[in-house]
Amino acid sequence: MDVREQSRTVEALLFASDRPLSALALDDCLPEGSDIDRLLADLQQHYLDRGVNLVEVAGKWMFQTAPDLAFLLRKEVEQTRRLSRAAVETLAVISYHQPVTRADIEAVRGVSLSRGILDTLMAADWVRPMGRRRTAGRPVTYGTTDHFLVHFGLNSIKDLPGLGELKAAGFLENVNISRLNLLDDDKSGTEQPELPIPPDI
Amino acid sequence: MDVREQSRTVEALLFASDRPLSALALDDCLPEGSDIDRLLADLQQHYLDRGVNLVEVAGKWMFQTAPDLAFLLRKEVEQTRRLSRAAVETLAVISYHQPVTRADIEAVRGVSLSRGILDTLMAADWVRPMGRRRTAGRPVTYGTTDHFLVHFGLNSIKDLPGLGELKAAGFLENVNISRLNLLDDDKSGTEQPELPIPPDI
Amino acid sequence: MTVRDTGQYSVFDDDPAPVGSPGDDENLVVDIDGFEGPLDVLLALARSQKVDLKQISILELVQQFLDFVAAAKLHRLEKAADYLVMAAWLAYLKSRLLLPEENIEEEYSAGEMAARLSFHLQRLNAMRRVAATLMSHNQLGRDVFARGRPEPVIVTTVTSGYEVSFYQLLRAYADHKTRKAVADIRIHQRDIYSLDQALDRLRGLIGDVPDWTDLFQFIPESVIDAKMTRSVKAGLFTASLEMTRGGSAEIIQKQMFGPVFIRKRDRKD
After folding, report:
1. Residue range C81-96, pLDDT digits in tens
2. All domains of chain B in start order, with CATH
3. Nearest CB partner across the interface for B72, out of A15, A29, A49
4. What is the ipTM of this complex?
5. Residues 72-101 of C with CB under 8 A from B
6. Does residue C145 belong to the interface with chain A, where contact is any CB pair within 8 Å?
7. CA–CA distance from B23 to each of A45, A78, B60, C57 (Å)?
8. What predicted TM-score, i.e. pTM, was given to this entire model?
9. Using the beta-carbon criterion (under 8 Å), do B140 and A159 form an inter-chain contact?
10. pLDDT score at B191
């Protein structure tokens, strides 16, 4: 292994490591007689005016964005957040059972729908009000948006795998589907036509 | 911002990320009139023989360690869990034949698809449902994800190894049709011979 | 030889793998579990002919498979109906291959059937080869590595503040269904004749009857349904025991499975 290969090795190790590495640790990966200090110094020199620099922190080495470009990283800090488990489940229920009312969702999930879940799903532009059901109180029904389809790579809501397919794919262990389907038949209100929602909702 | 600074910017952004970035997203961080394609090509060239390379995967760009150093790095990082042979074969059938239905996969492999294979591949985010086929029963079809391409270092499905040969040999034609074509070009799909063999041979 | 699926994936291309070295048929030890179905066996057998898959002798292949199944029968073939069906089909193909073509008026000639089988084997073989190639490709996180210490920046044309994969969505729905399957146990309300009803009826009627009476005479006439009748009988019997225990009645049964008689009893007796 010549010096060039040694240098490439150190470069790759530092890049792939999830923590700063000491010269000693790096040296362990190199053949006997390698001059690790020299390799590090050369690499540092090579990266000196590039977009990333090789820096020594507390006696260990790591790659870091050049300080003058750090603003780039801060500028776009739009970290994606994780949806709560309840929210994912609510989204799943809405997508499979739409159009559904709040009460439907609660009936299906068996727990009351905490405030903020629907708001979150609507803010994410995955769920939208669809209309009003022609039943007492004329509750608002919810369904999924086009953006939902785009996000999950679906052409239409009919492309969601059915229960049989979920089971076949191994998602539903030891569950009797025919029984599930029966239970789902109590999905009320499917026959009632939806009323269009007024624009101020 | 001169070209040198633009290059440093792109380098810093790509280096900071552990997932591929699209040229479009990178371009958003550059001043008007920057030639992002040129910048990427130059960077790729610069890193060509270094320990870290700039690669295009799934139509996006990312830095990763040079493949020839794999033997050195492997011990550094925990081995990815081994897939069962059935899972690997299923992944291959899906990636080369996509979009495919369960029945297609079973026809090619000559064995029914056991539980735990599709959901494992989906959990690894390599495979996803694509839609439904317009045939009786409208079965769900499966295909590969962008993450699959990234994981295997492919820019697109067209880059799958050996794709051309498989195509030339007629192995990738519609699974069911090709079976019939082999026997009789004039036969329509409805007249499948009733041979006592499950799965279809 | 024995073949075991270790669950590990190996680069099996050009391995003369599963069926073992050709020629030692006499020592053929068969472990069906080692194979993924009959096509897998056939491919392994075909490979053992050590010729291009396009040139394999289907007849010889068929015979080898039939031998394989015959040997496997001694073991646990009942687990593998597919093998038997395939064997039946191959036996049929073999007979067709041996018979002169002109005597047969069927949709497919033996040659076509053989070609079709050959095509399937070639395709499976090809898929296995590319599967092996694919797995030997550089894999991210195994052979090549992304930045190990990514700096927290996400450069995307931000579409949504939340990250949920399709898998997570399906998983959530499936988990919900699984929980629901456990939670939603509905017990149908059953029509039963309660002990209280039976006691009321017996107490009300027993005074009107002077002597030993068959307990089942007290079954209300309105009860005609068989299930309900059973419930009423059980109720009345329990009630009669209860009343006997309390001293307000006595019961007698003269033979096994015979009728139970009841009569009112005075405490003073």
Report:
1. 778 888 888 888 888 8
2. 3-67 (1.10.10.10), 85-187 (1.10.10.10)
3. A29
4. 0.63
5. 82, 85-86, 88-89
6. yes
7. 28, 18, 7, 54
8. 0.60
9. yes
10. 31
